[in-house]
Amino acid sequence: MSFRRKDSGSVELEDGVSNPAFQDADVTDSPPDAPKEPDSVYTQVKPYAGMPKEVLLLYSSQARYRVPREILFWLTVSCTLALVAVTVTIIALSPPCLGWWQISPVYQVYPRSFKDSDGDGVGDLKGIKEKLDHFHNLNIKSIWISPFYRSPMKDFGYDVEDFRDVDPLFGTMEDFEELLAEMHKNGLKLIMDFIPNHSSDRHRWFNLSRIRDPVYEDYYVWADCNATKKPNNWVSIFGNSSWTYDEVRGQCYLHQFLKEQPDLNMRNPAVRKEIIDIIHFWLSKGVDGFRMDAVKHMLEATHLRDEPQVDPNKPPEEVTTEWDLFHDYTTSQVGLHNILQEFRAEMESYSREPGKYRFMVTESYDYEEVEKTMMYYGTPLVKESDFPFNFYLLDLPQNTSGLWAKHLVDLWMSNMPRGKWPNWVVGNHDKSRIASSVGKTYVRVINMLLLTLPGTPTTYYGEEIGMENINITADQVQDPFGKYNLSNSRDPQRSPMQWNGDMNAGFNNQTNVTWLPVHPDYKSVNVEVQKDSEGSTMFQYNFLNSLRQSELPFLRGWFCYVRANADVFSYLRELDGPAGPAAGADEHQPRQQRESLSEVRRPDRTRRGFGDPVLHLHSLSSQPLLGMLRL
Ligand code: GLC
Ligand code: MG
């Protein structure tokens, strides 16, 4: 005897007689009281108002009601989901709002040389406050001020005696607070120089470290040595051994710069904590950002091995300059980025309020190792600097061809991590002024390059008027680097700002003292003369800077190379979209055209295609610049 399961679920005796009593009501083909469509009474009766719930339910479960209802339901769900997805995609794809540090150029003030308010020959904070109009006139909002901390001034403020005080030469803390308040009132941001690598040898920490105070004993990098035998062959950036014997402690201390600038031991958590406390100190005063000085020097290898010589045959006693060694153990050591990321995290905690973003830029000259510089951008998950300074355009003087300019630009653009923001530097207090190194005729075109490339331009004071280096004789040298070797002197690019044709170029007018001589060309190269003179370097700077901030393609457009050869480097800035506005800029005109190329004035708005605007930069003679992109 066998059993067979019926489709309905009832069980049937295969060879026997089926027993109807055995069939369960639940497993019959259809429930006894379900409406049977063909002969159901409900198919003939129309739904009526006030029908009882039970009847209504019977109707509503019929396919002709249920199916459209379910279609409508799923349609609503999928439309809602699609709407959410589209919104999220639009938000994700739309370009973020630009920060203040992206919109305005960063203008570097070297405080000793900007404006002297009290006639002692050295610029000061009150002087900067007197000149805030200059930034307003240039449409510049971000001001980086080189150090004004209390300092013995061996390296003009980069040797800090007290990280929480203002040097009397520059003014008082009150002067600083007034300057900051006035800047903020005028919509300006203040970026401070910050020096985490070293302090002055007059800093309290160093004095306590020398006497082996238990708290401060390891605040600096000490090693056993004697007055003649140094721990290794490491050399200072300013020349000679980077170790100095300290008689008080009977050991050598490390200084990657002057012997008056002992390196802090950043491997010591207590030192890092001190530095972070100082960051807090200035952020809570309201400063808007930091330029982190000499960051690649923050850590050194603890094994203290000799660095390899560039020329292995050079006698060791002749190994005295930065260029004689490969800096495998004194720069870019593992752990460096963690320290900067730690600083950054502290700064982020002050960046949360709208409009209060705190900006960080790092200074690291990595020369041909551009990938090392790029690491300061951080990783997609961990923030570091907003950008590391891009010093590659400082190499423009090596070869004034369009191809070389393109190469230098491309070095940054093709190595920069995805989604990051570029920047360009053509001068600072450490490098010869471009007007002197590349040549005066290039001043305007270099400003043009600076202001039309994608990213944030940095302008060293005086570049907007085309200031040149001064000549310095051996007896005039102020810079310690120049005292080591006159040709290294950074004094030539630090001469007083040329405001007008009056005494001392308007830098000060009380006395005839200026800490460095004023450039003799100040009668014609000054702010007052150039302000309203069409065709002047400053007029052009102002025009291009306004253009950069008002024309979206310049501010945030794509960047494409168009042409590069010995004479021309041209590129395109264009916004996304089929008919987006476009703008073109050309650099390095054929040699005979150099003068005219730099004379740029009003944009000539013409129209093309479907009405999208095109910008042409015209020369003063109203002739389009040669090589101008006609889009
Ligand atoms: C940076 C500064 C430079 C200074 C050095 C040591 O490179 O730009 O002026 O001498 O650090 O602090
Ligand atoms: Mg002064």
TrEMBL record:
SMART domains: Aamy (SM00642). It comes from the Eukaryota. Keywords: Glycoprotein, Membrane, Transmembrane, Transmembrane helix. Residues 585-610 have a biased composition (Basic and acidic residues). SUPFAM superfamilies: (Trans)glycosidases. The chain crosses the membrane at residues 71-93. Residues 1-41, 580-613 are annotated as: Disordered. Residues 108-494 form the Glycosyl hydrolase family 13 catalytic domain. The keyword Transport does not apply. Pfam families: Alpha-amylase. InterPro entries: GH, GH13_cat_dom, O16G_dom_2. GO terms for biological process: amino acid transport; carbohydrate metabolic process. This is Solute carrier family 3 member 1.
